[in-house]
Amino acid sequence: MRFLRKSPVQTFLLLPLATMAFEFALGPLYVRSIYLPVMIWGYLQYRLCGIYRIRLGGGGPGLSGAPPERIVDSGIYGWMRNPMYLGHIIYMFGVALVFDSWFAAVVAAARTVWFHFRVLKDERGLTERFGDPYLRYTMRVKRWLPGLF
What we know:
Shape: elongated
CATH topology: Four Helix Bundle (Hemerythrin (Met), subunit A)
Distance between the termini: 35 Å
Oligomer: single chain
Number of domains: 1
Number of strands: 0
Mean pLDDT: 94
Order of helices and strands: HHHHH
Structural class: mainly alpha
Low-confidence stretches: none
CATH class: Mainly Alpha
Largest sheet: none
Helix content: 55-70%
């Protein structure tokens, strides 16, 4: 059961499976393959940013297990502070588009709010861990989208 509580498992495995089951229960399952690049983009953003962060910052794939040893503020992390979480969000909305699913869209919207609160919690922990250097980083780099918020 612990495996199922992991965010990547919920986003990249359970959401598509639950969406397909829900939509199939309502009738024919529609697949709009033109939107598959959105899902691929989200997954690759999550995966590649994670590899980059671990390589430069140390630690493990998640903050709860083995937090980073250093602040990563280069590459995409110089543009936004949470590209991995944004990858989750892009993927989830991709699922909604691919399966033309209001169910997946509602889940994606709810999970987006959940991810935002998770980020706020992560930021408190990173501030405790790294102090002023992290606070300066947060002043320089936006949380979600460059130049916006």
